[in-house]
Specification:
CATH class: Alpha Beta
Strand order of the largest sheet: 2-3-1-4
Strand content: 25-35%
Largest sheet: 4 strands, antiparallel
Mean pLDDT: 89
Low-confidence stretches: none
CATH topology: Alpha-Beta Plaits
Amino acid sequence: MGDHTSRPQPPYYAVIFSSQRTDSDQGYVRMANKMVELASQQNGFLGVESARDDQLGITISYWNSLEAIKNWKEHAAHQVAQQKGKTEWYKSYTIRVCKVEREQFFNS
């Protein structure tokens, strides 16, 4: 989400996508990069943070409203990626939508 000065002020929403990968990498990185680029162009998108090891990944996207999240979920290209994820890239995943009421930031 950038540095401290560019962070949005709560409240805002976080979509936490935690996933366990399959062994298939075919097209995954390209699609993941495309989805981040496309999400960043959507109204209400505030930022994204992501971490992954060999199998487990967590991506958190930040949005200014539940409506923006719904619109992203229903975006045609995102739906294609979701289907591909279910059939090829993920063993399992969980999506959690949370309202961020407050945050504390530290930067040394």
